[in-house]
Amino acid sequence: MWMYLGLLAALFLGLHNLCKKHAVQGNEVFPVLLGTISAGFLLILPFYLGSLWNPEYMQKIGFYITSISWSTHGFIFIKSMIMAASWVLAYQALKHLPITIVTPIRSAGPFFTFIGAIFIYQEKPNFLQWIGFFLIILSVLLYSKIGKKEGINFKRNKWIFAIIAATFLGASSGLYDKFLIQTLTLNPQTLQFWFCFYTILILLIILSITWFPYADKRKAFKFRWSIPAVGILLQTADYFYFKALQDPDALIMLLSAIKRSQIIIAVVVGGLLFKEKNKRKKLVPLFGILLGVFLILYS
């Protein structure tokens, strides 16, 4: 069941990526990010209020938000800082790079998760999983060559480094999620509510320095329907992902790889919607990544 939940998370993440590209194109990145997280927070807020006013009913329907200790709050705040940094870098990169380049680089996340799962959680991949692992690496390298044809030099473009850093931080957060869900036994909605709450606080501090004081930047911001859609889709994906992680048999390195099947939506549908270049050539490394994910998943 945790594998099916992972596939559901991948579906919503793929739709989330399409909306995110629409939200940031020609727009101010930081307020877009704040808007998406705020929309996700408002989606979960009724569960928190219901847990305060009618805890029995919320427990019955499975959306009860539990009381947690201050130390647990601290652990969630660390996750918020990691992901806020990852999103700031990723959103800036997405604004300046094609989605058909950004999404495959983001698909490198399982590499970092794979290594972390081996050394931190002692998860043991088999021979076919190792083949899948290196197949994904080679496919991402092939994407870098295609990217050069679009005027994107992977060695000199600062947004490439930004998306790589964002990917590393995101993978670190994924490993940290297993600790939060399985060791601290947080349920998905509790983790999601407080994570959104602390992330909003962090983003408000960032915006108070980089955006609120500047009238020209405030005027440049355009509200779009895709901004709240990004937040709602992300929280839906995270819910299925955290539910999958609650299974003690769930392997974080395989779950991370399953989530990357979202690239089918981003590369194929996104390439058509945003009319990006070299779509056919990108299908070759796309197939390589999918084959790598398949080997990891079904070996």
Give descriptors for this structure.
mainly alpha
Descriptive notes:
It is a single chain. With 299 residues, this protein is mainly alpha-helical. Helix content is 80%, strand content 0%. The chain is globular. The chain starts with a helix and ends with a helix. The model has no long low-confidence stretch (mean pLDDT 85).
Which strand-content bin applies to the residues? under 5%
Rg to the nearest angstrom?
19 Å
Q: What's the total count of β strands?
A: 0
Give the mean pLDDT. 85
Summing up helix and strand content along with how strands pair, one would put the structural category as mainly alpha
Helix content: over 70%
Count, helices: 14
Kindly summarize this structure in a few lines:
The chain has helices at about 1-25, 30-55, 55-60, 70-95, 100-105, 110-120, 125-150, 160-185, 190-210, 215-220, 225-245, 250-260, 265-275, 280-299.
Indicate the topology.
Layout: H1 2-24, H2 29-53, H3 55-61, H4 70-96, H5 99-106, H6 109-119, H7 127-149, H8 158-183, H9 188-210, H10 215-220, H11 226-245, H12 252-259, H13 263-273, H14 279-298
Helix pairs in contact: 1-11, 1-12, 1-13, 2-3, 2-9, 2-11, 4-8, 4-9, 5-13, 6-8, 6-12, 7-14, 12-14, 13-14
